[in-house]
Design a protein that fits this description.
Elements (H helix, E strand, L loop, with lengths): L1 E2 L8 E2 L4 E2 L4 E7 L5 E8 L5 E4 L1 E2 L7 E5 L5 E10 L5 E3 L3 E6 L8 H4 L3 E4 L20 E2 L21 E2 L4 H6 L1 H6 L4 E4 L3 E3 L7 E7 L6 H13 L3 E6 L36 E3 L3 E2 L16 H9 L4 H7 L4 E4 L7 H14 L4 E4 L9 E2 L2 E2 L10 E2 L2 H11 L5 H11 L1
Parallel strand pairs: 3-11, 12-15, 13-14, 15-18, 18-21, 21-22, 22-25
Antiparallel strand pairs: 1-4, 2-4, 4-8, 5-6, 5-9, 7-8, 9-10, 9-11, 16-17, 19-20, 23-24
Length: 410
């Protein structure tokens, strides 16, 4: 049996992912005397490199290898030992990530912080703010402790249209409480104007939902948070908009010429109609969430590139970064442009993505993603760690398994 532990620097040095061009030293120890050994390492879809091992010494009969790669990406490798009787033995296959160092680096406050997620409508309602009257099919609870409306109506539709009145001033009023918990980062679920209480159906990227407050309230929140050493992170929902939005305007509730009003709309090319105007591509088939073509140049300009783009505007208003909703569905061209924009505005701002699996080797829609190769995301929401904690605390797995899972993530 070949002894090799990819997490032990005696066997692989440096530990973990490495910057491209770095010389990596591998060492293996076969249980029997070997006549020779090879390291077989390959970037996906490329011809493998085969590196012959140099014998480490007669005592342990180990073999050492040195290798470096100049292309960022995901590599896979294994070792093969050849014995004097003509037989051979292979190890398991291991993953190696080569990244490109990017300036600026991911912000230190992200790696050392405690993040608290707030669903704005359900967190705290300040009596100092009274939302303006809105002509929408909304239900506003008169008591904070009432059960939320979550059942479908007689037509089987869940409207997500009941509100408890949590607002941005309510978050400000709770900042000292959050400080007492050790919180250093507040991640807000969507706060832009939308029909629903969850607000993942964006109606207007440039406007705070009137149920929550105003842009002035948001700026005040960022300023007050900064005074107590906190950052404010926004939810960036760019894979889809709401059907009831300036951009799609399915119900003609806006004065804008939305995509549903025809090809003369500046937003028409943002969407993909199958049978205009009623059948169109939407997120997971939910027709209140029409999908956006994130490769459309006018959409990238609006969200990212314009001088007063959506991203630039809210970073300048005080946000310290973005959490990207369903980042697996955002193409590289969009993510690359977004990172450039965010770091230009504030090199200390962060970008994290919603990835439910191992983000280091994620394949989404047949594409291997390069989130962690140096020029896209600073981090992701660590669902694999969450799953591991639950399984460990629930006695599904032991401490050795949990430790190994954490080391894999590290």
């Amino acid at each position: 049996m070949i002894q090799y532990d990819s997490r032990d620097i005696k066997h692989k040095n440096p530990y973990g992912a490495v910057e491209k061009g770095t010389v990596i030293r591998f060492c293996i120890s076969p249980s029997e005397t070997g006549a020779g050994a090879s390291l077989i390492i390959a970037k996906e879809y490329c011809e493998p490199d085969i590196v012959k091992g140099a014998q480490e010494g007669k005592a342990d009969n180990g073999f050492s290898f040195e290798w470096s790669g100049d292309l960022t990406g995901l590599y896979f490798y294994f070792f093969e030992v050849y014995y004097s009787d003509g037989s051979s033995e292979k190890t398991d296959t291991y993953q190696l990530t080569l990244y490109e160092y990017d300036e600026p680096e991911s912000p230190e406050w992200l790696s050392s912080g405690v993040m608290y997620q707030i669903f704005p409508d359900r967190f705290n309602r300040s009596e100092k703010y009274t939302p303006p009257f809105q002509i929408k099919n909304h239900k506003v609870h008169d008591r904070w402790g009432q059960p939320p409306v979550h059942e479908p109506d007689e037509h089987g539709i869940v409207w997500n249209n009941d509100f408890f009145g949590g607002n941005l001033l309510g978050v400000i009023e709770k900042l000292e409480y959050l400080v007492s918990l050790g919180v250093t980062v507040i991640y807000l679920n969507p706060i832009f104007a939308a029909f629903s209480s969850h607000r993942y159906d964006t109606g207007d990227y440039n406007k705070i939902d009137p149920m929550l407050g105003s842009e002035e309230d948001f700026r005040q929140l960022c300023e007050e948070a900064k005074k107590v050493g906190m950052k404010i992170v926004l939810d960036g929902v760019f894979n889809h908009t709401g059907s009831d939005s300036i951009y799609f305007n399915k119900y003609a509730n806006y004065k804008s010429v939305g995509a549903c009003q025809g090809e003369n709309s500046p937003y028409y090319n943002w969407y993909s109609f199958i049978f205009f105007p009623d059948v169109y591509e939407s997120w997971w088939g939910i027709d209140t969430l029409p999908s956006v073509n994130e490769r459309e140049e006018s959409f990238i300009d609006f969200i990212i590139r314009n001088e007063d783009s959506v991203v630039r505007h809210w970073l300048r208003a005080g946000a310290s970064g973005l959490r990207l909703d369903v980042v697996d569905e955002l193409p590289d061209v969009f993510l690359d442009a977004l990172r450039t924009c965010v770091k230009e505005e504030n090199k200390d701002a962060m970008i994290i993505g919603e990835v439910w699996e191992d983000a280091s080797n994620k394949i989404a829609y047949s594409d291997r993603r390069r989130y962690f190769q140096g020029k896209q995301l600073d981090s992701v929401m660590n669902y694999p760690l969450k799953d591991a904690i639950i399984k460990f605390l629930g006695y599904d797995h032991n401490a050795e398994w949990f430790s190994g899972t954490v080391e894999s993530l590290r």
